[in-house]
Each structure stands twice: as structure tokens, then as C-alpha cells.
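Budget justification note: compute hours in this period were largely spent on complex prediction jobs such as the one shown. Inputs:
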Amino acid sequence: MATHNHHNRVIHAMFDDDHRLLDAAKVLVAQGIRIKEVYSPFPIHGIDPVIGVKRTRLAVVSFMFGAAGLSLALLGMWYFMIYDWPMNIGGKPSFSLMENLPAFIPVAFEFTVFCAAHGMALTYMLRNGTLPGMQAVNPDPRTTDDKFVMEITDADNQDLNADDLNTMLKNAGAIEINQKDLAR
Amino acid sequence: MHKEAAIRQALILGDKSYHDITVDVVGPIENKAPTAWYVLITIAGLIALWGLGCITYLISTGIGVWGLNKTVGWAWDITNFVWWVGIGHAGTLISAVLLLFRQKWRMAINRSAEAMTIFAVMMAALFPGIHMGRIWVAYWVLPLPNTFGSLWVNFNSPLLWDVFAISTYFSVSLVFWYIGLIPDFATIRDRMSKPLAKKIYGFLSFGWSGKAKNWTRFEEVSLVLAGLATPLVFSVHSIVSMDFATSVIPGWHTTIFPPYFVSGAVFSGFAMVLTLLLIMRKVMKLENYITIKHVEYMNIVIIVTGSIVGVAYLTELFISWYSGVEYESYAFINRFSGPYMWSYFAMMTCNVISPQLLWFKKIRTSLTATFILSIVVNIGMWFERFVIIVTSLHRDYVPSSWSMFYPTWVDVGIFVGTIGIFFTLFLLFARFFPVLALNELKTILKVSGEKYKNEDHH
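Corresponding output:
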């Protein structure tokens, strides 16, 4: 986003309470300030709509992986048991997928769950960027303990008045405000 | 803010802040381990080594070194398998079913219960593996193209269903557990000062930063995984029971097996959780998090599932007579009056009578009584599987082939060995992993913390 001012600042406002951060975020957003990110040690319920985080579609992903798993399991069992090498075991011949379906339910169920769970978990890791070897980007080590930080940048907000913002944050209960001037 | 009824007891005792929770859980990882830990892991490690030695001897010699014979082809091995799988049911039940029911008390116990689940399922999976005799062809349980035709595995067989059920259960539980661990590893990473430890926990935390979007996804994934794991928990032990129920053996061929086995599994799983947690809360000073109320809740689950198990025992006894099938009747007459009657009565005493003591509030809130009862239940549940398996097999349709089963030192060695391996793994977990879901606990502090609850109602 193009900005008119000369700064390229990143401001981290720290709070020591999740509800105080939530209230502060509401005040700031009402003033037209865009909050880029919130870092917290645990989920802050209600923050998503305030800072514009959309609902995740991971549940849909899980359903699709589950549907794929179910289809694959049924296709596999049809191929192994009915088509490729039908066997009469204990007087129970392999007639067709439909007629033999009751015996296939357990594996079909397990494989559906297997694919739905692992497919979703992998997608979650990839979308989050939480993978082996990744570096953490939280601005302060205390945000995984008991502090809550919101990140506001010039890149997101045109004509940001730092003094006004500082006063607003202080009034809203920020205990610490760190400003970093990034090179343009 | 979400409010909670005043009559609900606090789940986090004492004057705790968010930071206190971090310190209480991460502290034991940062500090030197107590001497007791070294003593315990040495004992458990030696037993584990003995077990591994027995397993090596078994694999290199053949399963003839077990006490199995032509009539009793399944005995301690499958007993141990079912016992361990059963124990492995509490963890996912606590983290999945109780999550769906929004039971906040799960948060103090789910992490260690899930760890217990994973280690117990590992011990369980060992037994069918070594019972194959030729463990190096264990991959034959998978439908892989082969040079025999291709001759596929039999998807009509409950033993194959079990392969799919156990592997799905194990891997999904592991992923569920690890996804919950990631933010807690990040907390440890950000606190550690020693460079090597910081690096290791940094790696384990996968670069977790706690962004708002990450947390939204985290909660969604937890909820969906709980929804998937709930039917999974019930399916796994149902399928284990079908290993027996679908075969035409008197004493096994009954339709009540799936719910009977599932409630038995939850029963023994909660007992093992109590055994472990009662020690852990004391040693790691977690009394403020794993409170008497938590113990009482778990004891209530034990009464309910124990009573279901009791009803199941009496039902199958009644049906064996009411069916009018003489083989079925004899299987049960033999259970309570045959040569294995001692194990039948051990099972009845431990599983049906002793848990009824928990109806008394004094007993179910007493830590000593709970600890003793939890061990009694675990012994009883081992006997239940032994009774079902061995008494049904040892007197089959042809009296000339009736026999008895006597365990050899290898049978005993491997069983005791798996207990050693299990405790070794659990002790390592307790030393190096966050034993409570500390970041999840912070979310209930203001709702269920003692200090905040009292502030609300003065």
C-alpha cells in the first residue's frame, strides 16, 4: 500500500490482559486504525472480527480429505476383494461391493478418519507456517507467557500520527509501547 | 466475558496469574530433576531392558517360548494387547469427548492422559507384532502388491480391521497431542536461557508465534479433531472386541461385546490416569491444578463405566443360560466353577464390587483410597481379558484337547517389561514435556480460577 508519510514504523503495543487488549483494539479500529497482527499466549476470544481475521476453512478441508479417504477406501476394497482376487472365505463369497459392504464399513470408517485428520493437520501446519525448522516471529518472548501484543504499521495506515496513537494506546491500558523505524 | 455459575467449584486453586501458570508448569523442566525421578527412571529403565531382552529372545527363538499350546493359542499376549489398548482409551476420551461436552476440568489432565494413551497404544501394538512370530514380515498386514499373485489381505477379517483401527487411533492421537503441544513448546522456547535447550524446544515448537489467525485455526483444528476422534475412540475398542465377537467360540460370540469392551476400556483408562496423576501432582507440586475435584470427577466416570461393565458381566452370564445353547452355558459355568474360577472372582471383585465404594463421597475424594482403587481396577481389567480369552479357549468342543495355560518366564518377562517401557516413556515425558496444557489452562483462569471466582461474588 502506498503511504504518504516518510516513516516506515512498526509499533508494538503490549498489554498484560487479554480483555484490555480486546477493548483497546475496538477503540483503535473505531478510529480507523488498522491492526496488523495480535500475538498472544492463548486465543483471545472475539478478537478475530475486530482485527479482520476471517473464519478459517480448515473444517471444509477436513471434510474434503475425509470424502477422498472414504472414496479411496471403498475403491481399494472393491478392487482387492471383488475385482482383482475374489475369495470365498468361510462360505462368504465376494459378490459385489454393495452386497459385501457391511464387512467393509470398519475399514472405510477408519480410513475416512485417517485421511480427514491427517489431511487437515497437514494443511493446518502448512497454512500456519508452523513446520519443523521454522523460526518464530513473535516480537517479544513474553507473548508466549502472559503478555499480549498488537502490531500496527505505517504500511497499513496512511498518515499515522504517532503521538495520538501513543496516547490512545496508553489510555487503553498499554503497559509498554515499542517503536521500530524500518529502513524504507 | 463468559461467566460460570457460583456453585461450580474452582478448577485452578490459589492466587494464580497467567505468569504463575507458566512458571508452575515450565519450572520443573528448567530445574534439576528431583532424586526421586532418577530413582524411578532407573527402576523403570531396568525393567524395560529386561522386557526388551525377553522380546529379543522371543523373536530370535520363536513363540514356542511362550506357554501357548494347541488349544490355547491366545493367552497373555492378547490379554496384554487388549489391556494396553483399553488403557489407551482415556487420553483421547478426555481430550476429545470432554472437549465436545465443554468440560473445563479436562484441561488440567488432558496432556498427560494423551501422553499415557500414546505410550499405552505403543505397548499394545507391540503384542500382535511379536505374536506374528516373524515380525520382519509385519508389513504383510498392509494391502501391498506382492509376488503371490497379488494376494491381498482379507478385508472381511476383524484382525485386519484392527490393523486399520489401531494405526489410525495411534497416529491421530499423536497428531492431536502434538498440535496441542506446539504452543506450549513455544512458551518453553521463549523462557529457556540455555542455548541447546532453547534450540531443541525452538525446533519442537515449529516456529509457533501465537498470531491471532494461528489461534483461530488452532481452535478450529482442535474442535474438528475432537469430533473425528470421538467416534474413533468408540470404534477402536469395538473393533478390538470384534476380534473375539465375530469368531464362533462360546464365550466370545456375543453381540454385547463392543459396548462392553468400550466401557471397560474407559474404566481401565481412567484408573491408569488416576494412578499416574496422583503421583505426578504430588511429585511435581501440581495440587493447585489437578485438584480433589478433578479426582472426584474421574472417580465418577469410573463408577459409571465400572457399573456398565458389571451389568455387562451379569448380562452375558444370564444370556448364556437363557440362550439354551449348551456350549455357551458351559463356557460360563466353566468360568465361575472351572479351574480358572480364581481369575473370574478376581475380576468380579476388582471390577464390579470395589468401584462401588466410590459412591461414598469420603472415599472418592480421598487420594489414598483412590490410588489403591485405581490399581485394583487395573488388576481387575487385566483379569477380565485373561478370563475372556483363556477360559473360552482352554476347554473347546473336543474334551480330549482340553488343556490349561501356564505362563512361562518369557510371558511374564514381556508383560512386566512393557510396564517398564511404559513408565520409562512416561517419566521422560514428565521430565521434558509440559505436563499440563498450560496455555489452554490460561483461557479458563478467569472463569474457573479460585481468585477470580471469589472476586466475582463478594
